[in-house]
Amino acid sequence: MPLNILSPIAFSPEDLELLRGCGVTRTYPKYTILIHEGDLSDSLYIILSGKVKVYISDEGGKEVILRTQKAGEYFGELALLDKGPRSASVMTLDKSRLSVVSKTIFNRCLTEHPDFALKLLCALTQRVRSLTENVKNLALLDVYGRVARTLLDLAIEKGGKLIIEERPTHQEIAQRVGASREMVSRIMGDLATGGYIEVTSKTIIIPHRLPSAW
Fold first, then answer.
1. Do residues 171 and 181 touch, judged by C-beta distance below 8 A?
2. Which CA distances in Å does 131 have to 66, 125, 168?
3. Residue ranges of the chain with pLDDT lower than 50?
4. Is 28 in contact with 96 (CB distance < 8 Å)?
5. In the prediction, which pLDDT does 132 show?
6. What does the alpha-carbon distance between residue 52 and residue 179 come to, in Å, rounded to a whole number?
7. At a CB cut-off of 8 Å and minimum separation 6, what does 199 contact?
8. How far apart are CA 85 and CA 67, in angstroms?
9. pTM confidence score
10. pLDDT of residue 1
11. Torsion angle in degrees (nearest 10) through CA of 191, 195, 199, 203
12. CA 167, 120, 106, 111: dihedral to nearest 10 degrees?
């Protein structure tokens, strides 16, 4: 149930142009499921435009969001490397355009452009580090700690303040931290009342350091 999975290393514009030529470009409507957890498939997906979420779910439909990804990032590389089933599901959050690269073409690209292999190795190393951090968070942080960590992970610094430019819903935060929406709503309400966060229709501003405990 990762809380702080870092996005994979993004491809440069030159990389994207090359991969666009190697793959098949497809456009998908909002809320299209691209990959089902457990599927056997062997394609790499490069996001050219739009946004997707990577998530896991149980038989009862409970969902945990692992991360969101945007243009310039990619997913699906693990199935190309180990031939195993998909470890998570992926759904578009906006109308999205992707380059779908088959395993055969992917292997050819690695042979002809070894810098891709180095980027993938760096990305996999990054994910292992993130997994270690997430296990620590799950073991040591309560729900408030996980919510606070998620807010900080989503924020960028702008004008001396931390800002989340695309405000997640309470349900989306709950799905990231493995808690109920009601619990997250109470925590967010208390943070807003205390002046620790400022919520607008599109953003969340964090003007002050978040308290260490709730």
1. yes
2. 11, 10, 22
3. 1-8
4. yes
5. 81
6. 21
7. 167, 188, 192, 205
8. 19
9. 0.73
10. 37
11. -100
12. 150
Count other C-beta atoms under 10 Å from residue 148's C-beta: 23
What does the block give as tokens for 157? 């610094």
Q: What is the pLDDT of residues 3-17, one digit of tens each?
A: 333 344 556 677 667
Q: Which amino acid is at 201?
A: S
63: tokens are 């969902």
Which pairs from 114-119 meet CB under 8 Å and 24+ separation?
116/15, 119/9, 119/11, 119/15
Q: Which residues contact 36 (CB under 8 A, 6 or more apart)?
A: 86, 89
Domains of the chain and any CATH numbers: 13-138 (2.60.120.10), 142-206 (1.10.10.10)
* pLDDT of 36: 92
**Six-digit token string for 162:** 């931390």
Query: Is the CB of residue 24 less than 8 Å from the CB of residue 99?
Result: yes
Q: Which residues pair with 55 in a beta bridge?
A: 65, 89
For 103-121, what is each residue's pLDDT tens digit?
A: 888 888 888 878 877 877 7
List, in sequence order, the alpha helices (H) in 114-155. Answer: 114-140, 143-154
